[in-house]
Amino acid sequence: MPAILALKTTPEVNRAALISVNRPTWALPGFEQFPYCLAAMTGDSAQQHADLTSAVARVCEQFGDDYWLSCDRDGTFPAEFHKAMADGGWLGITMPEELGGAGLGVTEAALMMKTVTSSGGAFAAASAIHLNLFGPHSIVVHGTPEQKARMLPPLMRGEHKACFGVTEPDAGLDTTRIRTFARREGERYIINGQKIWTSSAQVASHIVLLARTTPYDECAKKTRGLSLFYTPLDRQRVEVREIPKMGRAAVDTNQVFIENLEVPVEDRIGEEGEGFMYLLDSLNPERILVAMEAIGIGLDAVRRAAKYAGERKVFGRAIGQNQSIQHPLAESWMELRAAELMALEAARKYDAGEPCGAEANAAKYLAAEAAFKACSNAVRTHGGMGYAREFHVERLLREAMIPVLAPVSQQMILNFISERVLGLPRSY
Fold first, then answer.
1. Torsion region of 193: left, alpha or beta (phi above 0 gives left; psi -120 to 50 gives alpha)
2. How far is Cα 287 from Cα 276, in angstroms, rounded to an integer?
3. Helix (H), strand (E) at residue 397
4. Are 315 and 266 contacting, i.e. CB atoms less than 8 angstroms apart?
5. Which domain holds residue 224?
6. Is 428 inside any structural domain?
7. In a shared domain, residues 288 and 320
8. Tens of pLDDT along 90-137?
9. Residue 317 sits in a domain of what CATH number?
10. Do both 149 and 94 map to the same domain?
11. Which of 178, 154, 182, 157 is nearest to 167 (CA)?
């Protein structure tokens, strides 16, 4: 049994008044945290996965619907949830054991994140801890022993929070065209530039930052000349401006303006000019995690809708007796479970060292579509009350838009499958 499962005694949080008496339960058939597809596993791994999801669920149960509604309404970072996950050892689930992590794989991280989002916290809960699972991956793989020992334990303990500075306003998905530039001066770099859609920068202590170290026009290949850094977020040199947005108000999203940020050479990850290649190491795990997070939200929405449909009576009978209510929810349940199978297959292949780009991208696409549809169906099932905050499905719908748009668009995934799987010519 993984060592992390012995760490699951978490302290009570101070905001007990926000713990909802109506927090989600998993009494309805078909909504077990332990996915059906894992029944194919034998021996210890299946039991470990069951134990893992149960232990994560016990942490999440401390934070009910009213807690997450409060975080969303007030735009407050879920610090108590972040601390509870850190205290339980969960922020180090994929980190090396020799540094205090659990040393588990993407499969276990994906199961954890699905449990987190299906508990009612949705992407507010996921985004509070998500970066810990894929963001430091480049440090784990390409960092020096000194960097790993210095950078990773504080993240696992929750003492440091990191944000991810890659996307830029004028580059978008064309990452090789970013303009943020790191000029080397002796044993330090001076960095200037701008980032956008940088989540949690308001509360972050550190930033994973991608910058050019060689001008684009001087590179033989467009993917070269980019370097990756992990460094403190110096507020004297970095201005962070929050972007008001549709959902997930509990976790901020920002524009970041960098002016003469000094970064020591020892904060550069790996070789200079190879940052883009290092970044690719984390793309498939991120897609898998986002897929499972979306699936968790979708299943939560369907569960809430099914419960409401069974209790709400109109014309003398439960509205759930009507096929017009039943069938959309049944469809969503099937689509979400199918997406989950794809995501877990992608995770299995990644953990086995097998190519998984097609599966990881397909999982993200399928999960995003299924989750958004499920949340829309849940709002419709609730009728007018679906538009009311007290039933929470409108919050799930707003947050379910996130995986449709990020971290890569659905259209770019279709392009990837068309070119890499079907062998069709590139269209852009």
1. left
2. 17
3. helix 393-400
4. no
5. 162-279
6. no
7. yes
8. 999 999 999 999 999 999 999 999 999 999 999 999 999 998 887 788
9. 1.20.140.10
10. yes
11. 178
